[in-house]
């Protein structure tokens, strides 16, 4: 099915990873539609609907699929392609992924295709596949498998490069660099196989590199961060932003640390500069005249949050010691 055309008259820009869909052919029409069926404005991704003389009547022997994919709108029959595209201001359609590759990470809707596009823009990266991986006891994790042209390309280097290209929640928490990515018999990327390999890699990486909090202050910070991010077993080397943190959550973390750990001098900038529990605890401790005070406050905080409501009420009614 051919419904659009993109004319290439000049050398393709180096940062392009694929050609746009272009503009509709004569006697054809296109829509970019959101979840409510409304048209999306420029730059906002939505499902690609097509209509015109080149559209089939339905799926042979599949009335259920025909009813799902062929829909009537404004007096025309439209075919829902399942592709995610967006309009450029000049009317050009750009492919950004598949509707079935749209996931939710830390409350954000993310198109895996956009993550893959960003990965391919990193120098040395040839191919990339992103997937959402389930982790026991935690929220789902964004992971990616990358095939690189250069042996010097590393997972950490890719993450650093992505920080200039996409928001923090779109940077995969786990990245594996491989020599090749498998394809199906139909010549498409074998996403199921990649997802299985990533699941194994993520599972193996969960515990070996994990360092649990070793001081009351580290434990309290890990608890606060984990509560905000909806995660358990936060390690002291886990990156706040790689786990799904952002500027809003950083602001909330600062407010809680100030109030609950009696650390009024902490700033949002401290979270950005010290992204791990270990680094943040060190910064907080360095600013204290009494090295043990924050650990004492943290111990009290951890004790209180471990009490039930009745115990807290009973403790609050006890007379103060003189």
TrEMBL record:
GO terms for cellular component: cytoplasm. Signal peptide: none annotated. It holds the Pfam family AMP-binding. Its cofactor is pantetheine 4'-phosphate. The keyword Ligase applies. One of its GO terms (molecular function) is phosphopantetheine binding. It comes from the Bacteria. InterPro entries: AB_hydrolase_fold, ACP-like_sf, AMP-bd_C_sf, AMP-dep_synth/lig_dom, ANL_N_sf, PP-bd_ACP, Ppantetheine_attach_site. This is AMP-binding enzyme family protein.
């Amino acid at each position: 099915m051919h419904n659009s055309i993109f004319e290439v008259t000049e050398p393709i820009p180096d940062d392009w990873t694929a050609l746009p869909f272009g503009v509709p052919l004569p006697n054809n029409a296109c829509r970019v539609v959101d979840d409510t069926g409304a048209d999306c404005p420029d730059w906002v991704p939505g499902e690609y609907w097509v209509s015109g003389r080149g559209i089939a009547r339905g799926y042979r022997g599949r009335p259920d699929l025909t009813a799902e994919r062929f829909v009537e709108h404004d007096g025309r029959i439209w075919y829902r392609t399942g592709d995610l595209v967006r309009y450029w201001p000049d009317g050009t359609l750009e492919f950004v992924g598949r509707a079935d590759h749209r996931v939710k990470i830390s409350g954000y809707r993310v198109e895996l295709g956009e993550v893959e596009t960003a990965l391919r823009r990193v120098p040395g990266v040839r191919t990339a596949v992103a997937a959402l991986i389930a982790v026991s006891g935690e929220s789902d994790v964004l992971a990616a498998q990358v095939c690189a042209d250069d042996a010097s390309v590393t997972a950490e280097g890719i993450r650093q490069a992505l920080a200039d290209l996409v928001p923090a929640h779109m940077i995969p928490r786990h990245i594996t660099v491989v020599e090749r990515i498998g394809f199906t018999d139909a010549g498409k990327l074998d996403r199921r196989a990649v997802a299985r390999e990533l699941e194994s890699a993520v599972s193996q990486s969960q515990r070996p590199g994990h360092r649990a909090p070793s001081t009351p202050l580290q434990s309290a910070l890990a608890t606060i961060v984990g509560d905000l991010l909806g995660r358990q077993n936060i390690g002291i080397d886990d990156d706040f932003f790689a786990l799904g943190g952002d500027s809003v959550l950083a602001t909330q973390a600062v407010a809680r640390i100030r109030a609950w750990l009696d650390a009024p001098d902490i700033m949002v900038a401290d979270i950005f500069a010290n992204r791990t529990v270990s680094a943040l605890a060190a910064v907080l401790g360095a600013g204290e005249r009494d090295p043990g005070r924050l650990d004492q406050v943290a111990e009290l905080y951890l004790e209180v949050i471990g009490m039930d409501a009745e115990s807290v009420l009973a403790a609050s009614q006890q007379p103060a010691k003189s």
